[in-house]
Design goal:
By secondary structure, the protein is an alpha/beta fold. The chain has helices spanning 19-30, 42-55, 71-80, 104-132, 153-171, 191-203, 212-219, 231-242; strands at 10-13, 34-37, 61-63, 86-89, 135-142, 178-185, 253-256. The chain has 2 domains: 10-186 and 230-256, NAD(P)-binding Rossmann-like Domain (Rossmann fold, 3-Layer(aba) Sandwich); 189-228, no CATH class. A 4-stranded parallel sheet has the order 4-5-6-7, with helices on both faces. It is globular, with a radius of gyration of 18 Å.
Length: 265
């Protein structure tokens, strides 16, 4: 993990009870930032926060349960955490329906959770960052929406819209020390993806580790990494972008996707 001192900074990470969000929370805590753990389940949020407090006794760990897939949920989180120095718009859900099969409700649900939550949280916190002339907003992007593929249309549309939103927000930071960036993330170990990989491997009589190369060929044949990324690897990049070391990086779409996109730019 990259060593940066983010002491005195408050970093809400949406959707941070597990997966990449949790790895980001751990990365910021290791960099001495105060971290806000967010999720829909209050018991799980508090349990994760308690565990992190025991692992990282120095910085503050704030449990802030809220379902930010709604306006009221975002308001609930903002009431618990009125100030932010580093915002990580990480929360997202996936739906695998094709473009014509996905219902209006599926499109609306993913739009609210994946796009509107990021807009609402950024709209609430960015003015304070601009006033203080300091701050970071980071978007957990996804590389799949940049590629044409069958299925997951509602997810792709909502995540691709995030890229445009992030750049538009960055325009508001012109001439300041505030930055807004997107990190495009590829196939990365998570509870949901590992469960799929394990099931596919088990059907062949193999372990997930034994079948990893075949799984990568199936879901991301262009990968240069030739393995699933680890959430900690993505988190290290996020911590770097939140640090003073990345002060010249703004309005960018950056990659932590293992070369899966097969594109020069």
């Amino acid at each position: 993990m990259l060593k940066s001192d983010l002491g005195g900074k408050t970093a809400p990470v949406t959707g941070s009870t597990d997966g990449i969000g949790n790895a980001c929370a751990r990365g910021f805590l290791a960099a001495n930032a105060d971290v806000v753990i967010n999720g829909r389940n209050p018991e799980k949020v508090e349990a994760v926060a308690a565990q992190l407090r025991s692992e990282f006794p120095g910085p503050q760990v704030i449990a802030a349960p809220a379902d930010i897939g709604s306006l009221e949920g975002c308001r609930q989180l903002l009431r618990q955490v009125p100030r932010c120095d580093i915002l990580v718009n990480n929360v997202a859900v996936v739906a695998l329906d094709d473009a014509l099969d996905a219902s209006d409700e599926t499109y609306r649900r993913l739009w609210e959770i994946n796009f509107m939550s990021a807009l609402r949280m950024s709209r609430a916190y960015l003015p304070g960052m601009l006033e203080r002339n300091e701050g970071r907003i980071l978007f957990s992007g996804a590389q799949r929406p940049l590629m044409a593929y069958k299925g997951g249309t509602a997810y792709s549309a909502s995540k691709f819209a995030q890229v445009s939103l992030a750049r538009s927000l960055a325009e508001l930071t012109r001439g300041t020390k505030v930055t807004v960036n997107t990190v495009m993330i590829g196939i990365t170990h998570s509870a949901s993806l590992d469960a799929v990989a394990t099931d596919i491997a088990a059907a062949k009589g193999r372990t997930q580790e034994e079948d990893e190369q075949d799984f990568v060929d199936l879901v991301s044949p262009g990968s240069l990494l030739r393995r699933l990324a680890r959430a900690e690897e993505v988190a290290s990049f996020m911590v770097y972008l939140a640090s003073p070391l990345a002060s010249a990086t703004n309005g960018a779409v950056l990659s932590a996707e293992g070369g899966t996109r097969q594109a020069i730019y």
